[in-house]
Amino acid sequence: MSAPHHGLPRLLAGLEPGGAPMSLAAHTRIHGPLPDIAPHQLIEEVERSGLRGRGGADFPTARKLRAVAARRRVGPVLVNGSETEPASAKDRLLLARLPHLVLDGAVLAAGSVGASEVIVKVGEGAIDAAQAVSGAASVREHDRVRISVLTGPEGYVTGEESAVVHYVNAGVAKPTFVPPRPFERGIRGRPTLIQNPETLAQLALVARFGSSWYRELGTVADPGSALVTITGAVRAPGVYELAFGTPISDLLEAAGGSVEPLQALLVGGYFGTWVDALSAVGLLLAREDLRSVGCSLGSGVLIALGASACGPHESARVISYLAAQSAGQCGPCVYGLRAIADSFGALADGVAAPGERERLLRWCADVRGRGACHHPDGAVRLVESALRVFARDVEGHRRGRCDALPAGLPLGDSAVQPPGWGLTPRLREVAR
Ligand SMILES: Cc1cc2nc3c(=O)[nH]c(=O)nc-3n(C[C@H](O)[C@H](O)[C@H](O)COP(=O)(O)O)c2cc1C
Ligand code: SF4
Fold first, then answer.
1. 82, 270, 330, 337: which to mutate for ligand 2, most atoms within 8 A of CB?
2. 367-389: string of b/e by CB count within 10 Å (b at 16+)?
3. Is 326 in the pocket of ligand 1 (CB under 6 A)?
């Protein structure tokens, strides 16, 4: 085990501003060689570390490792680098700039569950990530597993785990009905471990430096560090590595501060929750604190909405985007989300019929939990929080008042993006 570095940055250690992927030599200099750790020991260390998945579902990583390791004839480890959340940039940053850290985690995880292959899946647009991972894989002579890289279509639900498996198996990037879950029956019908790139990068460090080291940062309930993409009305949008438990106000400061007074923050990306700015800046980036206002960090995205923007209109664009992203397989998702988006749009435009808000809330309740995947659940979470946080603006719109400016929340390649809008989060790595 090489000497661990204390404090931050951890994942982003040694990352210089600018483009090239970190070489294997530089990576080994910073983190030390791949540790030789027994499978059961790695899983125990991951369990003690308290590491949880960073793809949005927040699932305990050791539990997933154990579930796959307990099975026979295990399939490839699948690195879910789809990063379909339009405002997120952390996974692409890891894959494009620190590919060896992610591959270390994938190779170690493969060893711990008895897999002999790793597949890294990224979106078609992430060419830099695909190239960096291929290049990194080609110089890793000591790995005992085969590594391949696969690109797939973009789209919000294509990153859902059963959709990734479906794509690898049959070229169709749509969720399948579960069970069986991928850990039971995944790639080529075999038990499959699927993890987010950040989860694997964290695992690579836990394997090297141990769970006690991992717990030096963060809180007891939320140990370690996290990559957060912050965008919107801040001076330096980008990807930041923070210890869990960091105040959101510190994150805003790290991102250069806000460009104007803020009215709200969207916490957790487009499956996330709007929180009014006053409540949000007093929160800590920790599960319990976030839960107290009904939100979670999700895939690690925070969007700051300036006072000059229109919460209802921004939300309407995002909800319309999410409705358009439905994979078209489940009635409540296809028709329900479309109706919800239209209803919310009418409220945002101040042209809603009497009782629209109540009808909309009823529809939200109707679609929740009614999809093969969690797409409808995430979308209605956003709708409900928008109705709560922007209630006064919605009422103002009914009376015909809105002089707000477009804030341009990013919507990927969606056709619903109006011209002139669309702020793409600039990658910015911070070594604190
Ligand atoms: C609609 C939808 C989209 C998702 N997109 C992604 C994604 O782009 N990347 C990702 O890692 N997880 C995504 N997830 C979560 C995955 O299904 C899965 O939980 C995750 O990849 C597991 O890795 P983790 O345990 O390391 O977080 C998505 C989930 C849903 C419901
Ligand atoms: S819930 Fe929606 S996105 Fe998920 S599988 Fe069904 S139709 Fe597709």
1. 330
2. bbeebbbbbbbbbbbbbbbbbeb
3. no
CATH number of 311-398: 1.20.1440.230
Pocket of ligand 1 contains residue 82 by CB under 6 Å: yes
Give the atom of ligand 1 at the shortest distance from the alpha carbon of 88. 8
Q: Render pLDDT for 84-137 as a digit per residue (tens, 0 to 9).
A: 999 999 999 999 999 999 999 999 999 999 999 999 999 999 999 999 999 999
CATH architecture of residue range(s) 225-309? Roll (3.10)
In CATH, which of 3.40.50.11540, 3.40.50.800, 3.40.50.2300, 3.40.50.300 is domain 24-214?
3.40.50.11540
Please state the pTM of the whole predicted model.
0.94
What number of residues does the chain have?
A: 432
